[in-house]
Amino acid sequence: MENVTNHQGNVIYVEGTQHFNFTDLQFYSPLIKLTGITGNMDGKRGSDIVNQYVLDFFNTYLKGTGGDLIQGPNGKYPEVKFVESSEL
């Protein structure tokens, strides 16, 4: 992550998620949260956030459009936090 910020990249994380929130596992059952392998975020909300940020990233770097979400905090997605290089 330090290397990313040293090259003017953004490091972001989504509060309330764990590694397996970024898979379809969160959709199988709400009881998955009890195992601790996903965070407490609602699966649909987490999936929407990931989809929107990935789409914004690819639109920016492949199409040259968009880029609003990956530039900094956005009120529509308050769970998404941008990490400053001083926080690493």
End-to-end Cα distance: 7 Å
Instruction: Provide the residue-averaged pLDDT.
Output: 89
Largest β sheet strand count, sense and barrel closure? 2 strands, antiparallel
Strand order of the largest sheet: 1-2
Unreliable segments of 5+ consecutive residues: none
Q: Which structural class matches the secondary elements?
A: alpha+beta
- What is the helix tally? 2
How many strand segments? Answer: 2
Q: Report the principal-axis shape.
A: globular
Percent helix: 25-40%
The radius of gyration over CA amounts to: 14 Å
Strand content: 5-15%
Could you give the order of the helices and strands? Answer: HEHE
Task: Write a structural description.
The chain has 88 residues and is α+β, with helices and mostly antiparallel strands. The protein is 30% helix and 9% strand. The chain contains 2 helices and 2 strands; from the N terminus they run αβαβ. The chain has helices spanning 2-6, 43-63; strands at 11-14, 80-83. Strands 1-2 form a two-stranded antiparallel ribbon. The longest helix is centred in the middle third of the chain and has 21 residues, at 43-63. It is globular and about 40 Å long. The model has no long low-confidence stretch (mean pLDDT 89).
Summarize this, please?
The protein is an alpha+beta fold and about 90 residues long.
Fold topology:
Blueprint: H1 2-6, E1 11-14, H2 43-63, E2 80-83
Antiparallel strand pairs: 1-2
Task: Name its key features.
88 residues, alpha+beta, two-stranded antiparallel ribbon, 30% helix, globular
